[in-house]
Structure to design on (132 residues):
């Protein structure tokens, strides 16, 4: 009887260890393999720059705009990001200026508001978010 109990206990312990290993392996795999629905979806502002970022590294969209009616100046918006993304909007004096850009890759994406004064441009806000 003692041998049967020890044998049952040993079998039960092996099954529990195997189940634990399977659960651990599944959790580790989930941490490494991204979900099909994981994506960037974020926004933020700084000074006169506003960014809305959506998508994933395989393809993302950046909506750049001035933050509000107090950002009434002549200038442009610049979008920079992964894989050499560097696009400039046309010069405008509209406080509701908006500029949409698409890109690919992971990393930091920034919208910079530039105020034009003669032949120079002055930084008037920079908002950044990450694509991951």
């Amino acid at each position: 009887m003692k041998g049967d109990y020890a044998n049952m206990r040993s079998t039960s312990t092996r099954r529990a260890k195997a189940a634990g290993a399977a659960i651990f392996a599944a959790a580790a795999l989930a941490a490494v393999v991204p979900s099909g629905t994981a994506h960037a979806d974020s926004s933020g502002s700084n000074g006169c720059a506003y960014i809305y970022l959506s998508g994933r590294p395989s393809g993302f969209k950046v909506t750049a705009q001035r933050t509000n009616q107090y950002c009434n100046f002549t200038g442009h918006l610049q979008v920079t990001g992964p894989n050499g993304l560097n696009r400039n909007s046309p010069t405008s004096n509209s406080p509701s200026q908006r500029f949409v850009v698409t890109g690919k890759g992971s990393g930091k994406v920034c919208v910079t508001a530039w105020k034009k004064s003669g032949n120079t441009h002055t930084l008037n806000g920079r908002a950044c978010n990450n694509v991951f």
